[in-house]
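Retro notes - structure team

What went well: the batch runner handled both jobs without manual restarts.
What didn't: labels got mixed up in the shared folder, which is why I'm recording both outputs here explicitly, each with its sequence directly above its tokens.

Job 1
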Amino acid sequence: MNWLHRAIALLAAALGGGTALAADIPLSSGQPLAFSMAANQLASGFYIDVDSNAQILKIELSGQGRNDVDMYVRYGTPFLTLSQNMTLDLLDNYSHYHSISGEDNESIIVTRSGLQPLHAGRWYVALVSYNGATDNLSLKATVSNSTSLNGLTFDFNSPDTDCDTAPWNSTAPATPIDGNPGTTVGEQRRNALRYTGQLLTEQLNITVPIVVQACWDAQGGSPSEGATIAHAGPSTFALDSPGFRLPWLPDKYAFYAVTEIVRQGGTRQCGALGGDCSVADIVATFNTDLDPPRNVLNRPFYYGYSGVSKPLRSIDFVSVAMHEITHGLGFLGLVNVDASSGVIGERPTTTSGTAYDDVFSRRVAIVDRTTRAVKPFLGPTTSDGDRAKALVSVDGLRWGDAEAVNSSANVLAALAPPDNLPHLYAPCDAGSDVGNCATQPGSTLSHTDDTTHPDDLMNAFDNGKPLRSLGLARPMLNALGWSGSETVLPTYPQPIPSNWYDRTRNGHGIDFQKIATDTVYGDLYYVVFYTYTTAGAPEYFTALGHITDGRFVALPDANGNTLSRVLYDRTKPAGQRISADASVSGSFGIDFNQAEYSPACRSAGRAGASLLGVMNWSIGAEKGSWCIEPSVPISIRSTPDFAGHWFAGGGDGGWGMEIFSIADGSGAPTIVAELYYPDAQGNPRWATASTADYAAGATIDLNEISNGYCRVGCAAPTQLSVNRIGTLKLTLSQPTRENTPSGANRADVQIPAAGFSRSNVPITLISTPPGG
């Protein structure tokens, strides 16, 4: 509609600052494009077209190494472009992949597997330059019809406090053995670890470089007490959440090992997470005391490749290295199994103390020994105590993902459910009282069970055999992001235009309405966040933005805020009275993807909600993350349905109302209206009107909540109190949207104390009519 297009154009023109490179710059496969970028410049128009035969798309940015230039990649539709003030948040929210190291050398590899797989069509690239001087850059996109492996590389020369690298360079003589041609012990050790990397790279089809910091450490041991042979793990974990997006991860609000993040994101750790590009992805440490001269177990490492000539009293290095590095690839759960670290069964937490899932434990199931019932290890009704019992249940801790269950590597696959679920290590004497059992930190949960899966690589105990296959770990890792199988493009949740609220913050809410359909940038929505001042008086804020990939992404206003406080100036001519309050900063967004897993939505029961979203907002120094749901299901709306946001047209802006109509069985619908209006000082206020039996033109009381409560840090009052402040009369015929209201629908508003009055004025929908 014309008025809507004008409003969007005015919004774009009002946005401040920044310079953009020319748009629509095609890239040819394998041909570098050289150009210069000034400091703080944006370039968002690069693209390459990919056909259906493509197996790999590699996008590389190379520069002089002195500046920081970040790269973002999006499939199918272009990045939202504004002539000015294209913010980092907008780029981040529209990207499917990113590489954001502190360098100007970035790389992203997209394959045909993963959440956002390589697919025929157009792939867009955006670049942002920070600080420094003009940078001379080269951008190259290469499409390949075949895959190539990159895989595991080993850093043998980065010692630190717990990392002795000297044993990799031992000059003690050694005789070549079983495929290992090394003539010194150090050489054989390096060869054996590289051979391990080759096995894992080939079995997992690893297409991105993963760096292992290779270490030794004197960890002692004895024949009577045993010894730690080796240990390895990812160098860090991260999760995709609205605060820090990793948009290529399939599971939201769940910790992933950095190796899984690198694999699926197709970029280095520093590209995915930022930070130092010299940090390894895995740290693997082997016990120096097992080899001569100490030889504490009288079972030294055997460094042969195949293991065919392995002495009985020896430890197969390649098997051990495969096992430990597989932990580093993400084969480990983060639910607490160590009583010295907190409550057994607790989910992992961030540094702020917020609990989240981890992607490994989300695939774990609990099987009740008596009833044989199965429930998720991290399910909403599974308590820390339930998990604690499962962790020492002998056979109650299982892997639940279907690919591993049905795999030929699962020795239980032929059994009837749930007995076909692979066992994870849950130590306890089967005949004892579960309460007398104890977890084994480092082993419980993060291994397969040696009794039911005796020859599996990821058993809790080394059985001495020279294993060279991932076994059951292969399909288990597939569920964690290592699958090379081709995937389809994702589908995203579609939000419901409606009134939304958080059950734990009742009395606050949002009017969330679609106002335009946009097949390029995503449907455009208008949001009114109605809430309260610190003094408890009703106030509201607004946002305008697109739905992209299942998220509401708000556009910045003239002040750079994505949540605006609207001021009304009666002294100005009609049509010019509204402005955004520059004194109040605000931000706003909603993520509808897997919201049920978010800490916000786990804060209370959400049974019966038709859809959930996580609303992240800030107003000044306040900020919150709320779990929201539609307050009026579509199934109970009346016919005709008057639901939507109404206003008096562009010549009389600054006030309007949300209406929803409910079929209550009485013939006439129940009508509820949230009226948004300016008070005598021009500040934004809101009030509520409702009638159980709507009659055209009938007077309805307008009520204002008098004991509103704060947005952060206080509980909702037992009951909200209301004061009558005026009247509302509605004459509604059909839900229509017109450039100029015709008068088919009318409103009369009288609020004496605010000096606000509208007498029987025509109104029209600013939002899309229901069903449109």
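Job 2
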Amino acid sequence: MIPISDATVSSRLLTLIASVVAIVGLYYGRQVLIPLALAVVLAFLLAPAVGWLEKCHLTRVPAVLVVLVLAFTAVASLGWIVTGQLMDIVDQFPSYKSNIHDKIQSVRVPDGSRLKNATNTVSELSNELSAASESAADKKAGKTSSRSGPIPVQVTQPPSNAPQYLRVMIGPLTGVLETSAIVIVFTLFMMIKREDLRNRVIRLAGQDQLNIVTQAFDDGSRRLSRYLLLQFLVNIGYGVIFGSGAYWIGVPHALLWGVLACLLRFVPYVGAAIAAVLPMGMALAVFPGWHQAALVFGLFVVLEILISNAVEPWLYGAHTGISSLAILVAAVFWTMLWGPVGLILSTPLTVCLILMGRYVPQLGFLEVLLGDEPVLPVEAHFYQRLLALDQDEAREIAESYLKEKSIGTFYDSVLIPALTLAERDRHLNLLETKTADFVNQNTRDLIEELGERSLNGDEPVTFDENKNNNDQDDSGALKCDTGFSQSDPDCAALAGLRVDCIPAADEADELVAMMAAQLLQRLGCDVRHLPVTPRANLWNELASDNSQVVIVSALAPFAVGQARLLCKRLRQRQPNLKILVGLWNFEGGPAKAQERTGAGVADMFATSLEQAVLLLSGTTPEASKRAQSDDLPESGAFHEEIATTKL
């Protein structure tokens, strides 16, 4: 039997070898793969139009032919117009010579300036180094500086007839025409036989992978089609606005600059900038001043700000699935493999790689490296920054979370899970004492600060993400809103309830007890939390306080035994005391927590602060009618489990 570690290393080695082979295959197979990739992109882009024609009772083949003919006719017509305008620029370029010369003279550095002297010095040193290197090379080759004979000159004969002239003109375009023809054939076949291709890929993956392959196809087709279509529409709109702006400014050949802006914007990051530089250069060459070039630059800046920060986030959603760094790295990678075509296709191809990483376990690293989803959960991120002794960034993570969620939700979803991670590392001897003290102290400071905010009315402490705890009623009194997802408990049920929150074992349990006490105090309870003290002091504290309920705070799964022992002693000393065991962050809900702690140990069990508050709302006479009528507020997916453990 192969050890698990050896199997893992072998799997990673095979994945690395397969990745290298795939990259080599992508490079040497680019003559076939580039047209294939272009055809896939065009098929996804044109599929909605074909689908619309099919809904209009047109069969598949005529619909595909109509869409392809219209698309390539539009592209060819636009290309013909753009080529004509480029030829006009080439013909008119000599007339711009004097204006360009004046612009160069206006920016030339005056003689005698420090910058000019430094430039001349660097130029002279460069010439001397070049001459010295050439002389050394000639001596090494046994040559002299003088030539022994005349330099041969090769004269190119012009084409003598029409076929030769046509061959000279079309020769450089042969590769482009061949690629275009292959792309058309591939696109036609893919759009006509798309179901057959889909079924063949599913068959290759195996019938036992039907669920995964179906999800991958649905996710890929939806994301790629939507992204490509929206990007195409956005870039067309960008080109129209940019070309119209150039026409209004007076830059010649505005149609050309609009088309180039539309096409170059498919190139990540640098494409739009290049599209702006070209008409700026045209404006500098045509107009005597700098005003028109500045207007073109201003138009570019305004369009980029509006489209990048408003239009694209609104259309694409919160994110496109690719991180910003991944877009840049992918652009460089695909450009090195496939040249300019790879640069244009880099984003769609990267989306495909992310989908492969999402649905193929061996390629999961691709989604982590390229995707824009948070790699670390917020609780792990918060704890990691505390491990790095970076309290400032940890505080920023907390503040960012609290901008959208309440303090109660923050405690249940972030702070308690982070403390669980710290306790796990501490019990495994992976956490130094100094670091553990730093984590606990900063957590304590944060809890105290949030408690001051909630008491001052600066932050809501409820668990409801859509409600604000600071609303007031007509009388001006502060509304008591516990906001448990679907309905609110009667806040009078908790008003005046005397509660003691005690830790089961160590400081982490004490910190969660602080959180519970803080939330209950805001809801009107007469509550106090006790620190980690010797048991003799604890009994004295409890004896001096006529509390109605005791919350035993235990961070699962490490303090279960201590919580069980503490509850038994509490039951022996004060039989009439209501005991709620908070086995925080315990998987399985209150029923499993009761099973783990033991039957009869406590009256109530909760695994989150929200559950604890819900259970306490049924411990007072004011809530007895609601408890008897099963009118307990529901809270998420665990309300059924709470109903089984209420008094």
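One thing worth noting from job 2: The chain has three domains: 4-84, 218-370, 397-469+480-645.
We'll revisit the folder naming next retro.
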